[in-house]
TrEMBL record, chain B:
<dbReference type="GO" id="GO:0000160">
    <property type="term" value="P:phosphorelay signal transduction system"/>
</dbReference>
<keyword id="KW-0805">Transcription regulation</keyword>
<dbReference type="InterPro" id="IPR001789">
    <property type="entry name" value="Sig_transdc_resp-reg_receiver"/>
</dbReference>
<dbReference type="InterPro" id="IPR036388">
    <property type="entry name" value="WH-like_DNA-bd_sf"/>
</dbReference>
<dbReference type="Pfam" id="PF00196">
    <property type="entry name" value="GerE"/>
</dbReference>
<protein>
    <submittedName>
        <fullName>LuxR family transcriptional regulator</fullName>
    </submittedName>
</protein>
<dbReference type="InterPro" id="IPR039420">
    <property type="entry name" value="WalR-like"/>
</dbReference>
<keyword id="KW-0597">Phosphoprotein</keyword>
<dbReference type="InterPro" id="IPR011006">
    <property type="entry name" value="CheY-like_superfamily"/>
</dbReference>
<dbReference type="InterPro" id="IPR000792">
    <property type="entry name" value="Tscrpt_reg_LuxR_C"/>
</dbReference>
<dbReference type="GO" id="GO:0006355">
    <property type="term" value="P:regulation of DNA-templated transcription"/>
</dbReference>
<feature type="domain" description="Response regulatory">
    <location>
        <begin position="7"/>
        <end position="122"/>
    </location>
</feature>
<dbReference type="GO" id="GO:0003677">
    <property type="term" value="F:DNA binding"/>
</dbReference>
<keyword id="KW-0238">DNA-binding</keyword>
<dbReference type="InterPro" id="IPR016032">
    <property type="entry name" value="Sig_transdc_resp-reg_C-effctor"/>
</dbReference>
<dbReference type="Pfam" id="PF00072">
    <property type="entry name" value="Response_reg"/>
</dbReference>
<keyword id="KW-0804">Transcription</keyword>
Amino acid sequence: MSDDETKAQLQRGLRIATLILAVLTVDVLGLIHLVHGLEFHDHTAAQFAAFAALTAVLATEAVLVVRRRLWRDGRRLAIAVVLGASALSYLTLPDGMTSTTVDWLFGAANWAGAVVLLDRPFRIFLAFLVTHELLALANLLVFHEVNRAALVRFTTGSVTVFALPLLMAVVAAVLGGIAAEAARAARELELARTAEAAASAAHRRRTQRFAELSGTAVPLLTGLADGSLEPSDPVVQRSCAIEAARMRRLFAETDMVGNPLLHELRHCADVADRKGVEVELDARGQWPTPPVAVRRDLTDAALTALATAGSWARVTVVGSADAVSVSVVADCAEHAVPSPATPDVRIEIFGSGGTVWMEAQWQPS
Amino acid sequence: MATELITAVIVDDHAAIAAGVRYWCEQADPPIGLLDAGDRLASVWTGQGADADVVIFDLELVPGKPDFGELRRLVDSGRRVVVYSQHADNATAIKCIDLGALAYLTKREGPEHLVPAVRAAAEGRGYTAPSLSGALAADDTPDRPRLSPRETEVLRAWFASSSKELVAAKLHITAKTVDTYIARVRVKYASVGRAAGTKSELITRALDDGVITLAELNETVR
C-alpha cells in the first residue's frame, strides 16, 4: 500500500465517523429537543430554518463523502451558514432558555462545523469553536437575564459542547501524524527491500560472471601466476588475447545500448585494434535484438578470429527481420568450429590460403 | 578505346582525398588521368572537366546535406558518376544507384575498389563495391526488385569477405560467375525505379552479353 493510500484510508474513516456523529447530534438528538421544546418557542419558523440550514450542510458533506471529494469554495459559505443559523436560533430563543434542552442548537452547531473543518489545520477549527462559543455567550449576556443558574448551565453545557468536537479534532490531528509515520515506515521498508534485492542481484551477476570466466580465464591466470605457463609462448599469448576479448565482451553485455550485438562486436574489435590489427567493421540492415546467449554464440567466432588475427580482419553484420549473421574474415590460424550453445545458431568456417572466414547465423525458429 | 587514357574529374572539398585519389590514379596500370575540381561543381560542367569520362562525386560537399539534386543533373546530362561518400547508410547508397550512379563507394573503400569502379564507369558498366553489395543484400524497401536466393547469397558473401576469390572458393563457383551474379543484381536494380540513361545502358549491355535474359528481367519487378 502506498503512503497516500494509507493516509487517505485513515482520513476517510475519520470523516465518515464524524459525519455519523454530526447527523446523530443535529438530526436525531437536535430534532428531538426541538420538537419537545416546541411549545416554548415563539419563533418556530426561525428555529426550523436554523435546523434546515444545519441539515443542508450535513447533507452536502454526505454527498461529498460519497463522491470522495473535499470541500473547496463552499467551505466558507458552509461555516457562514452554520454561524448564521446559530445566531438566528439564539436570537429567537425565549427568555431564560439558554443552554437548556430547548436551546437544541447549542450542542449541535459545533458538529456541523466539525464536518466542514475536519481536514483543515487544528487552529482553524479551534477558531470556529471559540467563535461559536462567544456567540452563545454574547447572546446570554446581552439579551437574557444573567443569573447564577444561567451561567452554571452555560458553563456545564460548554464542557460537552466545546470539548467533544475538540476531542474529535485532536484525534484527527493525531491520526494524521500516525498516518504520516506509517507511510514513512512503509517507504523505508520498501527502500530497504529494494536495496537488498539490488545487492543480491548484483551478487548473483558477479557470481555468474566469475563462473563464466572460471572455466577458461582462471586456469590461465593460475598458470601464469605459478609459472607453469610461459608468457613468451605464442599459444599462451593467443589464449590471453582471447580471454581479454571475452572479458571485454562480458563487461559490454551489461551496457544499456540500442544495438547490443554491434556494441559487443566493437569491444571485440577494439582488442584486435589495440594489437595493431587493421579492423573493418560494417553492418547492414536491421535485426531484432538477440538474447545474451545467442549474442555470445554469434560473437564467439568473431572474438577468437579477432584476438588471433595477424594484421587485418573484416567483421560484417547483415540483418533482416528474421535472421542476423556475423561474418569475420581475418588472417588468423584456422580454429576448430566452436559449437554453439543455443540451437538456432549455425556456425560455418571456411579457410583458404592463410585467410579464415567464419560465419555465425542466427535464425530464430 | 582500350588504348585511350581514361580521364576522371573529382569533386571533393577535402584536399587530402583528392590528393590520395590522384595518387591511386597515377599508380594504376594503365594510369587514369585525374582532374581536381576541388569543391567547384562548375568545373565539372566546363572546360576539361566537361570532357572527363567519369565524375568522382563527393555526395556531401555541404556536411549533412547529401546533394542528390546535383547527382541527378549529372546523370541526366549523360555523365557517368562514381559516388564517393562518407555516408554508409543503406538508404543513401540505394538512392544513388536509383538515381543512376554507376558506382557507390564509401570512403573507407580504397584504391582496390575505386580504380576498378572508375574503369567500369568509363565503359558504362556498373561497379558494386562491398559496402553497396551489403546495402543491396539488406535492402527491404517495398519497391526493391526480386532477387534469387543465390544472388542474395553472393551479395552477402562479397560484402562479408571483400574478396571475389574467397567468395568463389566458398560458394564453389568461379570469380567470373561471382561477377555475373553481381551484374545481374545491378541490372535488376536498373530496371526498377527512376529511368536514367546510364541505367538503360547497363540493361542493354547486360542483355547483349547474356548476363540476364529479357524473360528474367521481366520477373524482377514485384
